[in-house]
Amino acid sequence: MAVPVDNLTKQPPASSTLRFAFGNVLAFFILLLIGVLAFSIRLFSVIKYESVIHEFDPYFNYRVTQFLTKNGIYDFWNWFDDRTWYPLGRVIGGTVYPGLTLTAGTIWKVLQSLNIPLSVETVCVFTAPVFSAFAAWAAYLLTKEVKGTGAGLTAAVLLAMVPSYISRSVAGSYDNEAVAIFALIFTFYLYVKTLNTGSLFYATLNSISYFYMVCSWGGYTFIINLIPMHVLLCIVTGRYSSRLYIAYAPLVVLGTLLAALVPVVGFNAVMTSEHFASFLVFIVIHVVALAYYIKGILSPKMFKVAATLVVSVGLVVCCAVVAVLVAVVASSPTKGWSGRSLSLLDPTYASKYIPIIASVSEHQPPTWPSYFMDLNVLAFLVPAGIIACFAPLSDASSFVILYLVMSVYFSGVMVRLMLVLAPAACIMSGIALSEAFDVFTRSIKFYISNLSESLQVDAGDSLPGNNVSPQNEVLKNEKKEDTLKERPSRKNKKKEKENIEKPSVKSKTEKRPLVLPVEASFFALFLTVLLGGFYVVHSVWAAAEAYSAPSIVLTSHSHDGLHVFDDFREAYAWLSHNTEVDDKVASWWDYGYQTTAMANRTVIVDNNTWNNTHIATVGTAMSSPEKAAWEIFNSLDVKYVLVVFGGLVGYPSDDINKFLWMVRIGGGVFPHIKEPDYLRDGQYRIDSQATPTMLNSLMYKLSYFRFVETDGGKGYDRVRRTEIGKKHFKLTHFEEVFTTHHWMVRIYKLKPQKNRIRGKTKKSKSKTSSTTHRSGTMKKNPWH
């Protein structure tokens, strides 16, 4: 009995099913290895130093996590911290993004319930490496939705090692970006997944993922502006569909409601300009959806009338909404934008109006070498990935292209946002490498198959007798039968030519794969592997040397070996053991978080920078002469002043190099502080050519007090590479109480105010002298 041909074609062969299952299992194990790689490459800091928190902001997050695990969630939301921003204080629960803290606290609770006794500090140290593995897997899912499994695996392994992401996710980097980059990529994946499937389930998950991103990082505004831009792009280019509506509308409604539940966001989710674009596009997509719905149920004539009506009503509604938004925005001095958002839209805004933002090093624009340092070979592969996304162009690939373009712009304005560019660059590079490997391997397979066929033909020709093999005869017979069955009649010959032959020729030309010469394929494959090797070596070097050193512990290499500078922890330990619990410590805001967390002392300002006037007060004190600075600090109940000085060991990030920012921020609030008074011919100098205002400032005196004793009287500053201008001076209102081993941190104590002896003022002296002069002519009192 003959089996129908249709049934045979419908049933997939067992070999293809087995190959598909084997591919899935192999991809799963590759993803596990990528996760292990992403985790392990970030452990160099723990191996070289110890399990320690890095940088400045992570110390505040660690302190908040300690409070959460000790006191619970309710006390956390209502926590008023009186050890920061004295005498103002700070409400922690309503001013912090809780995603990182709640994540690490939950992990610690789960480990404790499983009888795994890890400390809170250990959990905080390893949170970022764990979530870097999650981010690599999220990049795989996103890229797979765009270009397939091969591109997804390539993008995942690239993201696991990209130096830009490693810099913010090494062990100990307990900052918001540790979990936010995973949330960012996963939210984009769920959006693209909803675009491809039109599933309301994935749309709901997308809103929940967006909510976690809002809890984790203020960069969530990038998501709520990028997705509306992509929706508007799809509508303008005629790619609207019901899947696009399902992917966007629930995100705006449910995502905004969830975002408003986060205390630090609150009503800003509907009242600030960062969110207005999503609402405008929300109105536009409903107008377009209504127009498509009406088009499907009305005749063409009726549709024209209805479309005119719908568009008119939509324009009226949009104009009304725009008018309301303009009124709301006009009432704000910053037009409804935050300072950081305005600095992204206008790169010169921060330097003109908000110097506190411009003073942060990670808010500065990057240099060209930083792209090659943080992305390496990915910078050359990104253009090829963009070209591959256009062949063919889909909703998913257009979203990835838009994501790349916007992240490139923002990374050019602020070096910190190189972190947002890194996933986009890895996705594009993964697509480019996957497409290139497909072409190279296909060309090699084609050459090998042709070579085997030619060998078989040669073996068949050498046999005596018939030169045609039985297989070829069967194929010829099958072709003859097919041509007899499919031969068109004379009546329909013309139609068959038009409807069948032309499309078949077109499809053959379109689907014809690109095949390169085998020599070029081998050479290109070798170059690609070599390029990948360079990327791996550079990434490992960046993880081990460039980004593994914690800022609180410094090292340097010299001819006599490795030197470790542990001055920061030495200074904080001295404060913790030699000062009273209620003593107030003044320093520049960079060291506020570390002082509170490690020394457990009250600080005047810290890294939150929420009150510009308070920071300007400290900057004014540092810029003022010694007596005026003493009066300012004494009015703030300050007992100790901490300064960071790198002139002895060559540490460039000291307070002398930051001093001009103190002058600018202080001068922005107190007009008597003028930057030109601290410059000589427009140059910032600390040598003999420095201005008297500079030489008499408190920062200069506290940094260079007794500095000449270190090198025999020269006073040579290794950072500024010059001798200081004022070498021998004494302090009248401050006294040195502690200087670390390498002179990197110096702590001074305010001298107490001198006692006022009653009757010794100038006014009383003159009065007593006059009375004495008058009484000189009188008789002396015998009782005195």
Which properties best describe this structure?
Rossmann fold; mainly alpha; two-stranded antiparallel sheet; disordered N terminus; 5-stranded mixed β-sheet; 784 residues; 5% strand; Oligo_trans_STT3
Q: Can you lay out the helices and strands and say which pair or pack?
A:
Layout: H1 5-10, H2 14-40, H3 44-48, H4 57-71, H5 73-77, E1 80-81, E2 90-91, H6 99-113, H7 120-147, H8 149-161, H9 163-166, H10 177-197, H11 200-216, H12 220-236, H13 242-259, H14 268-271, H15 276-297, H16 300-330, H17 339-345, H18 349-353, H19 355-358, H20 368-374, H21 378-389, H22 395-413, H23 418-462, H24 470-486, H25 493-511, H26 518-546, E3 554-558, E4 561-565, H27 567-578, E5 584-586, H28 592-599, E6 602-603, H29 612-623, H30 626-635, E7 640-644, H31 659-669, H32 692-695, H33 698-704, E8 716-717, E9 722-723, E10 734-739, E11 745-750, H34 762-775
Parallel strand pairs: 5-6, 5-7
Antiparallel strand pairs: 1-2, 3-4, 7-11, 8-9, 10-11
Helix pairs in contact: 2-7, 2-8, 4-6, 4-28, 6-7, 7-8, 7-10, 7-23, 8-23, 10-11, 10-13, 11-13, 12-15, 12-22, 13-15, 15-16, 21-23, 22-23, 23-26, 27-28, 29-30, 29-31
